[in-house]
Amino acid sequence: MFTTTPALAASIARGATVAELQEAAIAGGMRLLRQTALEKVAQGVSTLSEVDRVVGIGEGTATQRVLVVDDDPVQRKLAKAMLEQCGLAVTEADDGDKAQALFDAGNEPFQLVVTDLCMPKMNGDLLLTHIRQRHGPPVIVLTGSEDGTSEARLIELGADDYVRKPFDPPRFVARVKAALRRAAM
Fold first, then answer.
1. Measuring CA to CA, how many Å separate 172 from each of 97, 102, 104, 165, 169?
2. What CATH number should be reported for the domain holding residue 84?
């Protein structure tokens, strides 16, 4: 699991580049997913084709757009940095109302929405319902809530996945890629 260090939080708050965020995360003890995956290949636990399937960037992801919605700027910037590192184009919104406006404007067709559950103005439940009414893209819900019934309720509402915060970056990225693959089928 990834824990934000004070140095990483400060880098995120000042709007550091993806490279600077990666450097701060590595200095804080984080390892690159590709590095860890290749170690698993060397140990015989995985294969290169599996690493390419999960971690590979050469699948045309550069044109895929993701909308990240979270009122917590640190979580939002961290998610954005992780997804941009994978070649995804990321648009941010700090509440559900702004996300709904971006979604409805249609100027940027999103292939995936990642939204926090608890936000001021419009929460993740309402945003999810709005997107589902319009047959929108897959939605991954992020939450700090430990309430076990929330996950089932959100899946029933149409969420494609549910990730608890603080999220583990490699797992988060893998879930995003999986949702994008399923949507492309």
1. 24, 23, 26, 10, 5
2. 3.40.50.2300
pLDDT tens digit sequence for 36-84:
776 776 788 877 667 666 665 444 434 789 999 999 999 999 999 999 9
Here the tokens at position 46 are 């995985």
* Amino acid (one-letter) located at 114: V
Span 102-116, pLDDT tens digits: 988 887 789 999 999
Within 8 A by CB and 6+ apart from 2, the residues are 25, 30, 166, 167, 168, 169
Q: Are strands 139-143 and 161-164 parallel, antiparallel or unpaired?
A: parallel
Considering the domain boundaries, does residue 124 fall inside one? Answer: yes
CB-based contact 143:164 (threshold 8 Å): yes
Label residues 65-98 b or e (16+ Cβ within 10 Å = b): ebbbbbbbebbbbbbbbbbebbebebbbbbbbbb
How many domains is the chain built from?
1
Is the pTM here over 0.70, yes or no? no
Domain boundaries, position 127: 59-184
Cβ of 103: how many Cβ atoms within 10 Å?
A: 24
